[in-house]
């Protein structure tokens, strides 16, 4: 993919004399393009949704040499992203895996991220509140990064900088809200029609739904969507640590009410993701900053009631593993305390699960949250979406190379098969963890504590988990 990116950038340099006029076009509102204008009403590919996943996909497709003759339209429902780096860190961040980093490098966006700001994670420490069980994830001698913490705004700005260079075959429309879609299986044609709220209509061979968990494209497909609420909210905030430290560890503690995680931003700052009940979340948001910090430190350090059965079981398993020259005791590293919360950074969002039983249909395909939604406890949500982007981009290029149409169902079904084989096990594992750690029943606490000990002791199992999470 890196080679493809270089070829694409070379092509863009040759067209620099057109840059000024094309940038002006990108700023036009959707109302300036009428559905009566045949030159602009038809596109080979229309991408609905210009968030992180949709914009990255548009960048990938527009840069691909095999798709250089295809007209691509990206419909962004909101205004154009300013791209300005704010002084204060955003409270919405993503934990990117190595696969996502490689994707960002291939489209030239990673350089913009490194020139802005991000933080490498060298180690993850996860521990149980109701027992001594814990696990750590890191590469040998912490020589490689486990993940990268990047603000969503920074990532989106980095991708948009690349998008602005791709004016030959990519058009971006802002404030373009979708009213409805007419798909081939309903119309009897081979084209997809997309209607916008401003009255404009666009036609394409392939419509890609990247329009989030409430996807209009998915609803138009009329596919079965499995979903449920966790009756939890995720509280996010930017935190200042009690003292500066080499902040390269991502911390996560499983509380009876839900997991709480600290993700490193700088040596003095961390980002909070605290999953808890809706009622407690509302109470925490109403607290003063000082009281919120007290509640946060209590959640990180509080000693919960312990059951002797749990302690005996974990001790016995540890003795057995040591007799087999396996260590089940991770070296516990003390996590930092919190000094303050950045004013105005606290917010909360509802948590839920969602999965479309089908990702594709005639002339349409789903990516990202439009296809799947997962609990944030493992930090895999956005990485699953970027995995969709990489897979779909490769298969569309393969389809064109083989002389097939963009909507060829053989290639689309291959995408669906490959991504569901990866996404479904990940999502079920995350959902299982959420349910497993959502109770204080002694038998369940014993089972999950023993499982955590065993997983930590068996390095091949840990490496398999890390490789899968890395994409």
Descriptive notes:
This protein is α+β, with helices and mostly antiparallel strands. The chain has helices at 2-14, 19-26, 38-41, 52-63, 98-106, 110-115, 152-163, 184-187, 216-221, 278-286, 289-301, 308-323, 381-401, 409-436, 442-457, 459-469, and strands spanning 42-48, 72-75, 93-96, 119-121, 123-128, 134-138, 147-151, 170-173, 178-182, 192-196, 201-209, 225-241, 249-255, 258-264, 269-277, 338-341, 347-356, 360-361, 364-366, 372-373. The strands form three sheets. Strands 5, 6, 12, 13, 14, 15, 16, 17 and 20 form a nine-stranded mixed beta sheet that branches. β18 (360-361) and β19 (364-366) form a beta hairpin. The chain is globular.
Structural topology:
Elements: H1 2-14, H2 19-26, H3 38-41, E1 42-48, H4 52-63, E2 72-75, E3 93-96, H5 98-106, H6 110-115, E4 119-121, E5 123-128, E6 134-138, E7 147-151, H7 152-163, E8 170-173, E9 178-182, H8 184-187, E10 192-196, E11 201-209, H9 216-221, E12 225-241, E13 249-255, E14 258-264, E15 269-277, H10 278-286, H11 289-301, H12 308-323, E16 338-341, E17 347-356, E18 360-361, E19 364-366, E20 372-373, H13 381-401, H14 409-436, H15 442-457, H16 459-469
Parallel strand pairs: 1-2, 1-11, 2-8, 5-13, 11-19
Antiparallel strand pairs: 3-7, 4-7, 5-6, 9-10, 10-11, 12-15, 12-16, 12-17, 13-14, 14-15, 17-20, 18-19
Helix pairs in contact: 4-7, 4-13, 12-15, 13-14
């Amino acid at each position: 993919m890196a080679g493809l990116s270089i070829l694409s950038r070379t092509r863009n340099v040759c067209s620099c004399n057109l840059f000024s006029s094309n940038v002006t076009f990108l700023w036009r509102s959707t109302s300036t393009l009428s559905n009566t204008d045949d030159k602009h009403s038809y596109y080979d590919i229309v991408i609905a949704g210009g968030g992180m996943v949709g914009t990255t996909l548009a960048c990938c497709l527009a840069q691909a040499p095999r798709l250089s003759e295809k007209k691509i339209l990206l419909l962004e429902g909101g205004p154009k992203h300013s791209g300005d780096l704010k002084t204060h860190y955003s409270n919405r961040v993503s934990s990117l895996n190595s696969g996502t980093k490689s994707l960002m490098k291939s489209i030239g966006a990673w350089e913009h991220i490194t020139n802005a700001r991000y933080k490498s994670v060298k180690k993850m420490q996860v521990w149980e509140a109701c027992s001594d069980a814990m696990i750590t994830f890191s590469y040998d001698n912490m020589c490689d990064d486990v993940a990268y913490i990047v603000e969503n705004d920074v990532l989106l700005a980095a991708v948009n900088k690349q998008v602005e260079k791709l004016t030959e075959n990519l058009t971006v429309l802002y404030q373009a809200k979708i009213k409805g879609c007419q798909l081939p299986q309903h119309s009897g044609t081979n084209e997809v029609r997309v209607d916008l709220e401003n009255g404009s209509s666009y036609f394409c061979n392939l419509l890609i739904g990247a329009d989030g968990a409430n996807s209009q494209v998915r609803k138009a497909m009329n596919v079965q969507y499995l979903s449920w609420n966790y009756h939890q909210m995720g509280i996010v905030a930017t935190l200042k640590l009690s003292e500066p430290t080499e902040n390269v560890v991502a911390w996560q503690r499983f509380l009876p009410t839900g997991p709480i995680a600290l993700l490193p931003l700088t040596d003095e700052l961390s980002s909070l993701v605290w999953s808890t009940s809706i009622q407690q979340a509302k109470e925490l948001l109403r607290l003063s900053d000082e009281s919120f910090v007290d509640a946060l430190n209590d959640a990180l350090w509080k000693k919960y009631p312990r059951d002797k059965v749990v302690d005996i079981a974990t001790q016995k398993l540890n003795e057995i593993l040591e007799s087999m020259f396996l260590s089940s005791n991770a070296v516990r590293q003390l996590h930092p305390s919190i000094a303050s919360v950045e004013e105005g950074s606290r917010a909360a969002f509802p948590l839920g699960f969602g999965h479309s039983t089908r990702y594709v249909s005639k002339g349409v395909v789903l990516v990202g949250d439009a296809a799947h939604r997962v609990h944030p406890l493992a930090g895999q949500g956005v990485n699953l979406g970027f995995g969709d982007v990489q897979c779909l981009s490769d298969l569309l290029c393969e389809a064109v190379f083989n002389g097939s149409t963009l909507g060829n169902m053989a290639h689309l079904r291959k995408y669906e098969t490959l991504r569901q084989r990866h996404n479904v096990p990940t999502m079920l594992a995350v959902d299982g963890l959420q349910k497993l750690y959502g109770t204080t029943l002694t038998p369940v606490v014993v089972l999950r504590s023993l499982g955590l000990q065993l997983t930590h002791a068996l390095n091949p199992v840990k490496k398999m988990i890390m490789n899968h999470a890395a994409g």
